[in-house]
Specification:
alpha+beta; 5-stranded mixed beta barrel; 4-stranded antiparallel sheet; 29 strands; 22% strand; 6-hairpin_glycosidase_sf; isomerase activity; Mannose or cellobiose epimerase, N-acyl-D-glucosamine 2-epimerase family
Amino acid sequence: MSNDIDFTFSDLIAGYVIDVEADRGLVHLNTSDGRPFTAKLTSTTTAEMVRNLGDGYVDATTALTELLQHGRLIHAYGVFYPADGDGGTAFEAKHILLFGKGHDEFRFESPSWWINQISRIADFYLDDEFGPGATTFDYRGYRTDLTMEGTRTGAARQETDTVSRLVYGLATAYMMTGKDRYRDAALAGCHYMIENLCSVDRTEQVAYWYHALVRSADGTERKIFASEFGDDFDAIPCYEQIYALAGLTQTYRITGDEKLREIIDLTINLFHRYFADRGTFPDGTPRRGYYSHVDPVTFDPRSPALDDGTRTNRDRKNWNSVGDHIPAYLINLFLATGDKRYADELEELCEIIATRFPDFDNTPFVQEKFFGDWTPDRAYGQQQDRAIVGHNLKIAWNLTRVNNLRPHANWVTVAKRIAQLMPGVGMDPQRGGWYDMVERHTSPGERFHRLVWHDRKAWWQQEQGILAYEILNAVFADPLHAKYARESSAFYNGWMLDTTAGGIYFNVLANGNPFMLGGERSKGSHSMAMYHSAELCFLSAVYQNLETEEQPLDLFFSPQPGAFGGVLRVAPDLLPPGAVKIMQVWVDGHEYADFDAANLTVTLPHSTAPQHVRVRLAASAVTFSADTLENVDGTARIALAGSLSPHRLPVLQRAMEDALTAGSTRIVLDATDLVYLASEATRYLAVLKQQRDFTLQVDGAAGQVAQELCDSELNQELVR
């Protein structure tokens, strides 16, 4: 038989431990789809814990055998040796990646994981673009192109969408951390974009965005209007205008800056006036949707200039021109304003997607390219009749989000159908993670949908997989969705983070090793800045930590005087009604009580200066929270609130472990808002103090809490 595997090769296995034969050094695994593998541990096998950006290496080699409990998810990288005696293929593991100390612990589900990650990513970009520790941000020095290490190249190009993606990430980092540096950099970027990359036509009441600005070393500048990228060349693609709003809208959400809102509204006018299809079918039914491109001179989507024989953008629609409005700016604009117009548009776009895009009778994948009359276009550019896995996942994610606002049974059906199909055709069940572009159909005799370009995995498509299954699990509580969410997050956090240079890899190979050729070697390029990685940090904290794990989440806002008509809306995303509530609010460092916990609004006090607003959100079912207020100079301060029953003890355990892992030698528990303390909790604290070297202090204990501490005699060991 030809193509026999008669050579050694290295590869990755992602699987669940089924059994360990310690005396023989064998670990038996099952992959995500249930296929058995046996890995042999050798004298040179090493093991480590997954680490976040900024974390040091944590060795687990010496304790590996004890850590390989039944049911634990591990990633094993090693060497295959074919036909090694018994006719099978031997696999020797050389590197084992673990995701937590306990078999059911995943470090990327701790409350601080995503907050720390987004802060590290934001610092990576700010330090590389503006200088280490910069607190002033002159975007004249910004450059789109960055090397793998983050250094700027000789290119003098500033692309509008990559500036916007960076600004989105910085605004999101501020929302998660409250660090002024991120807010200031986001605002500076917004105003730079408006002043240098945006054109406002007051006569037509529209704003449109240049593709790029080239700043030469001699101080001259050249603006580029029509796109110079791939299939979009010499046209104005709708998605570029859409992503120009991502940064402005997220920054508006935290500041209420009216200048930003004006430009956002004028750009939306551009979509409605020139990109929207206002035509009808012969029977009078509206065609609806947005064209993918317009002529840069006439703004006509059906201009003959858009069809030059090699680029067929005349009278076309696609996923990006219809669907990208939803996550890039529309949801965030609705969250900031509560304006019914944006809810109506979200509903219309989702109805178009759920009606026009599914093609399940012919293929597991949605149709993504169309002519203006919604006839499928299966010969467009590079895509042809192919599917982008991440777009399918993105549809499932966004239909689920908007369904929480405007319920439609058909949207749920489509989202769940995509979620059911994608693991079998777009996921890598051997190694974890999600592939890129695949053929929409298999040929006779083929088991697998063929990969079009490569078997590499892009960072943004991993994001779509994680968020799709996290929100599906959060809303519908399906164990299978929870499984795929966790496996997707394990691959991303295990392999997409550049823990050496910083930032996120554009692509990794199927086996998790970084791919470092061409534009995909970059940390800044036409496609990559901070948008997807920051969006993942924020919404994973919302879907997994806040909703599923019921861990409190603090969000930060900096409303300008008079912003939002005096009412700050703080809903983190489109979640099921009543899913979360406001627990506490602080304004300029002082606790503040004028808020509507259920409706997620804060009535702002009158001020002539920008205010610093911190809002603590919790799942509505939460009865207990343990929130780390600060961790400075070896002292961690953790606020306890509610009723600490045995069922909620893991919440306290996670907070304590995070503090000790971060190097705290003194932990202060603020029990002012704690109304009940179970004896199991006091015994846990006593055992932890016995096992770990730290001092413990409890402040504000009263009533039953103080009595429990006294009865347990733990109070005798407390620092006064």
